[in-house]
């Protein structure tokens, strides 16, 4: 089975709880906290593992939160290569407001990584047995980390014969121009920021996707369109696919679930159309789950079948 490696430069210990109402200055009595491993690449690895794929998660780990993160991943059976760092792995905190159903998400910045620690992370990636067929770099960058690291990762993946999948945002995403990654998954708003204009029509969205291809961001661009689904653009493909309507328990991890499922589909040789369909199913499956829980395999397979049925009735179209 092809190996997928993930790199999480800014992992987190995700803590989630619930209270009746969030009010300023009041003591808020909360439910027992739930602890889960977090950070883009770690979430992707968890999803790939849950879906039966072969994956290894590489990430920096420091302090008691880092140790707890390691322990949780090992308990879940996810193969890991934690790289020790001097700093303390960050926490992220999610509070569900029981009365209103509103979710509050608090995200900490994470520790700085020095040049030696970054070099050890790169060494850990090149030292993986395999080598991996796909490498996923997902999530935010730690403070002061040079976004040019994505170009270094692209060079590394080419050297070992792997394909690079990138899912990041802001300045880090902008820095991916010219990296020549295999796939990126920006949101529509992020694409608008990259091309410097509003995208008000489907034709605008397709043109923007093609612009990102021409600027060397990736060979495949998957644009998340929220409740409208997603648009995939490659050199010879433009494919728009509708979202799957599900009751929303939590939006946490939906994007990571989509990336994990798409990468697994690619590693198994699926077509781009089936890859997008599987990713949309995983994203929808993650929406069903509470708190920071990710997509469950049974839900993904059920929704994937529903997406195939919807495609047959015309929900998937080429613009």
CATH architecture: 3-Layer(aba) Sandwich
What is the class in the CATH system? Alpha Beta
Give me the number of helical elements.
10
Task: Please give the share of residues in helix.
Answer: 25-40%
Query: Radius of gyration, rounded?
Result: 19 Å
What is the helix/strand order?
A: EEEHEHEEEHEHEHEHHEEEHHHE
Class per helix and strand makeup = alpha/beta
Q: Could you name the CATH homologous superfamily?
A: Ribokinase
Number of strands: 14
Task: Tell me the strand percentage band.
Answer: 15-25%
- Shape assignment: globular
Count of structural domains: 1
End-to-end span in angstroms? 34 Å
CATH topology: UDP-N-acetylmuramoyl-L-alanine:D-glutamate ligase
Strand order of the largest sheet: 5-4-1-8-9-10-11-12-13-14
Q: How would you characterize the largest beta sheet?
A: 10 strands, mixed
Write down the overall mean pLDDT. Answer: 92
Which regions contain 5 or more consecutive residues with pLDDT less than 50? none
SSE topology:
Layout: E1 3-7, E2 12-19, E3 34-38, H1 40-50, E4 54-61, H2 63-75, E5 80-84, E6 90-97, E7 103-107, H3 115-126, E8 134-138, H4 149-160, E9 163-167, H5 170-174, E10 181-184, H6 188-195, H7 202-214, E11 218-224, E12 230-234, E13 237-241, H8 254-267, H9 272-288, H10 297-312, E14 316-317
Parallel strand pairs: 1-4, 1-8, 2-6, 4-5, 8-9, 9-10, 10-11
Antiparallel strand pairs: 2-3, 6-7, 11-12, 12-13, 13-14
Helix pairs in contact: 1-8, 6-7, 8-9, 9-10
């Amino acid at each position: 089975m092809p190996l997928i490696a993930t790199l999480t430069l800014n992992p987190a210990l995700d803590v989630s709880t619930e209270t009746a109402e969030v009010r300023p200055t009041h003591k808020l009595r909360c439910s027992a906290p739930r602890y889960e491993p977090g950070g883009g690449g770690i979430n992707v690895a968890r999803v790939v593992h849950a879906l039966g794929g072969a994956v290894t998660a590489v990430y920096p780990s420091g302090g008691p939160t880092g140790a707890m993160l390691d322990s949780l991943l090992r308990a879940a059976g996810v193969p890991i290569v934690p790289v020790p760092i001097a700093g303390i792995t960050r926490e992220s905190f999610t509070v569900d407001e029981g009365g209103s159903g509103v979710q509050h998400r608090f995200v900490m910045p994470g520790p700085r990584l020095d040049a030696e620690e970054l070099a050890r992370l790169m060494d850990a990636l090149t030292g993986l047995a395999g080598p991996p067929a796909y490498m996923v770099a997902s999530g935010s960058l730690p403070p002061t980390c040079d976004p040019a690291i994505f170009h270094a990762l692209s060079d590394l993946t080419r050297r070992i014969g792997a394909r690079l999948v990138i899912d990041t945002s802001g300045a880090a995403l902008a820095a991916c121009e010219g990296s020549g990654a295999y796939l990126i998954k920006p949101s529509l708003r992020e694409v608008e920021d990259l091309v410097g204009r509003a995208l008000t029509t489907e034709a605008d969205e397709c043109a923007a996707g093609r612009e990102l291809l021409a600027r060397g961001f990736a060979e495949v661009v998957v644009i998340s369109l929220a409740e409208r689904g997603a648009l995939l653009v490659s050199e010879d493909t433009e494919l728009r696919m509708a979202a799957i309507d599900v009751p929303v328990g939590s939006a946490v991890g939906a994007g990571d679930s989509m990336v994990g499922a798409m990468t697994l589909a690619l590693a198994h040789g699926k077509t781009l159309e089936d890859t997008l369909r599987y990713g949309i199913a995983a994203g929808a499956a993650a929406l069903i789950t509470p708190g920071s829980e990710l997509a469950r395999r049974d839900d993904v397979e059920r929704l994937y079948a529903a997406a195939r049925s919807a495609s047959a009735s015309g929900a998937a179209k080429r613009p």
